[in-house]
């Protein structure tokens, strides 16, 4: 038994310390490569003390993934607020915030949607501090606001959250894998223009309303691959 393992528990906020250490280990080694015992040792407490807060490593990583979903929702809230009242701009800001989060925190992003996150056995949650809504609910609200503003029809709205979510998630995943040609945000702008067309945002705009901005062209995302 090591000195850390035999040391009595005297940590002020052990749960948060373990989460912070888990975040460091995930960033450095990946979610699969460490144990709860290792995290406990790193913060200077016994494994028994760590088990009072988390039943196993999976529970620790699920809690960390939930923190990631809180941060993602918070980033979306800020971006949508900064975009103002225009519902198209708010939807664009929602998607761009998702892309930026995925690229800015690739290890956390992978954890959130991996076997220890949303794809695992533990309950995963996380809502934004301003609205109390999850990232998914914020996306749905942005789409609902487009219907209320007459920018898309109810028929086009049905299932649109899946189209938007898979599009931005796939783009962030490909960007983190370094297989995109050019900046991810440039690719997003082209993709968002295509999504606007697919959802009929321009055709559903009210007569006499503000003219829609030109739809950006989708860049060749995979140029150079296999050359």
Automatic annotation (TrEMBL):
Keywords: DNA-binding, Transcription, Transcription regulation. Transmembrane segments: none annotated. Residues 12-72 form the HTH tetR-type domain. SUPFAM superfamilies: Homeodomain-like, Tetracyclin repressor-like, C-terminal domain. PROSITE patterns: HTH_TETR_2. Residues 35-54 bind DNA. GO terms for molecular function: DNA-binding transcription factor activity; transcription cis-regulatory region binding. This is TetR family transcriptional regulator.
């Amino acid at each position: 038994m090591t000195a850390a393992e035999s040391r009595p528990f005297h940590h002020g906020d052990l749960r948060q310390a373990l989460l912070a250490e888990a975040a460091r280990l995930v960033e450095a080694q990946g979610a699969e490569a460490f144990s709860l015992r290792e995290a406990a040792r790193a913060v200077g407490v016994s494994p028994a003390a760590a088990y009072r807060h988390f039943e196993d490593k999976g529970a620790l990583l699920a809690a960390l993934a939930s923190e990631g979903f809180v941060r993602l929702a918070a980033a979306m809230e800020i971006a949508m607020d900064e975009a103002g009242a225009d519902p198209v701009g708010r939807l664009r800001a929602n998607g761009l915030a998702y892309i930026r989060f995925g690229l800015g925190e690739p290890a956390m992003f992978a954890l959130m949607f991996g076997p220890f996150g949303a794809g695992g056995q533990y309950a995963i949650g996380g809502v934004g501090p301003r609205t109390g809504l999850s990232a998914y609910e914020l996306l749905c609200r942005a789409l609902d606001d487009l219907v209320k503003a007459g920018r898309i029809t109810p028929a086009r709205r049905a299932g649109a959250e899946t189209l938007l979510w898979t599009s931005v998630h796939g783009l962030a995943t490909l960007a983190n894998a370094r297989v995109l040609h050019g900046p991810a945000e440039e690719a997003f702008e082209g993709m968002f223009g295509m999504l606007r067309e697919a959802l009929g945002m321009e055709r559903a705009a009210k007569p006499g309303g503000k003219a829609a901005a030109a739809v950006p062209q989708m860049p060749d995302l995979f140029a150079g691959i296999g050359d």
